[in-house]
């Protein structure tokens, strides 16, 4: 984490080096124009930046500034490829890499959350539950291994491109049997990537909360991401993530109003909005197993490292994609009150043990301090 004052100083030095450096180079005349232009560019966008978010006259926010930093760093790396002079090439590469590192390290801290040591990660989810990590997200299987045709359920459908991995895991656990249905916690792109393909392949119904249907029938896009929440590259780049609706109307059904899931005795769905309006979690009171979706997660999803290499970090929903924090707060309380013994979340490792319930209560009672980001357009104006 680089303080904004140091960041501003580094920008000034970078601009000066880029403008003055080429003037002292005797060879590599071809580099002078692009480097001078880059230097002037850095100076211009730095002068227009509100470094501490308190200069209303300056139009560039810090999250946008960092993307510009990353872009000029990448431009230097690209320029370096065509340079024959070894010293100049090394300097350009070093500067490019340094700029990318500064861009990444200047992200404001994301939600504080609660660290969860690896001893508390679940190793055994019980007979009727399994979890599969698909890149940055988890999917779950409800139903004992070897369950018959239409006798098990898939929860969520991974990032785009994960159909093969999900089908393979399903075949390993259930042979040629097809699921009774696909249950959705919500319709974000990283939870519905393989949905259409899987529903077609298995000819299976998809159950989701009615409030989530507009995003699953092509009618409505999710609200824009809030990259200003900070916490790392995932947040930074979140404005690029797809938020347009998919259309799986042909297979889509509403979850029954009474909390039941068709033909599935032991499980109930629980409305846990905030992250999305129709977000639900799934709960088995007998085994005290909870599938929380993104209502609470167990890794720092705002950072690229946290997303790719789950760390054990209990927090509220992924901050960049959460537009209603009041509802999200109430949802975490609701889940904490269940006092689960096993919990699988949309992102991060599954957790188990007595301390799980204590940690969930701690998150719920200190939601404002531990789950809220320092900044988000939706803290002022929920959507
Ligand atoms: Zn989500
Ligand atoms: Zn998610």
From TrEMBL:
Provenance organism: Paracoccus haeundaensis
Record bears the keyword Hydrolase: yes
Listed transmembrane segments: none
GO terms for MF: hydrolase activity
Metallo-beta-lactamase domain location: 136-347
Name of the featured protein: MBL fold metallo-hydrolase
UniProt entry keywords in alphabetical sequence: Hydrolase
Listed PANTHER family: METALLO-BETA-LACTAMASE DOMAIN-CONTAINING, METALLO-BETA-LACTAMASE DOMAIN-CONTAINING PROTEIN
């Amino acid at each position: 984490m680089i303080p904004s004052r140091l960041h501003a100083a580094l920008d000034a030095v970078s601009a000066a080096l880029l403008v003055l450096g080429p003037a002292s180079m005797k060879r590599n005349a071809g580099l002078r124009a692009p480097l001078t232009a880059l230097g002037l560019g850095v100076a211009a966008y730095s002068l227009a930046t509100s470094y501490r978010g308190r200069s209303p006259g300056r139009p560039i926010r810090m999250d946008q500034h960092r993307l510009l930093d990353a872009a000029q760093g990448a431009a230097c790396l690209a320029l370096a490829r065509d340079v024959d002079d070894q010293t100049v090439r090394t300097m350009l590469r070093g500067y490019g890499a340094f700029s990318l590192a500064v861009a990444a390290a200047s992200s404001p801290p994301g939600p504080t959350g609660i660290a969860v040591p690896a001893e508390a990660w679940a190793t055994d989810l019980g007979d009727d539950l399994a979890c599969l990590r698909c890149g940055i997200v988890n999917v779950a299987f409800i139903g004992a291994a070897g369950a018959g045709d239409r006798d098990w359920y898939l929860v969520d459908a991974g990032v785009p491109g994960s159909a093969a991995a999900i089908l393979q895991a399903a075949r390993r656990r259930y042979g040629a049997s097809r699921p009774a249905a696909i249950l959705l916690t919500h319709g974000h792109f990283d939870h519905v990537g393989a949905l259409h393909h899987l529903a077609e392949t298995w000819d299976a119904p998809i159950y989701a909360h009615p409030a989530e249907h507009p995003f699953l029938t092509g009618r409505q896009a999710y609200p824009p991401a809030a990259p200003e929440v900070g916490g790392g590259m995932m947040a930074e780049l979140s404005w690029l993530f797809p938020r347009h609706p998919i259309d799986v109307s042909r297979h889509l059904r509403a979850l029954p109003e009474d909390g039941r899931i068709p033909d599935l005795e032991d499980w109930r769905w629980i409305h846990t909005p905030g992250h999305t309006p129709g977000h639900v979690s799934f709960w088995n009171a007998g085994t005290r197993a909870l599938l929380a979706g993104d209502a609470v997660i167990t890794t720092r999803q705002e950072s690229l490292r946290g997303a790719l290499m789950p760390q054990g970090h209990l927090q509220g929903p992924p901050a960049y994609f959460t537009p209603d924090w009041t509802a999200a707060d109430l949802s975490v309380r609701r889940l904490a009150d269940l006092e689960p013994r096993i919990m699988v979340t949309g992102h991060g490792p599954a957790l188990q043990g007595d301390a799980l319930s204590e940690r969930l209560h701690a998150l719920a009672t200190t939601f404002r301090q531990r789950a809220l980001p320092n900044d988000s357009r939706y803290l002022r104006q929920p959507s």
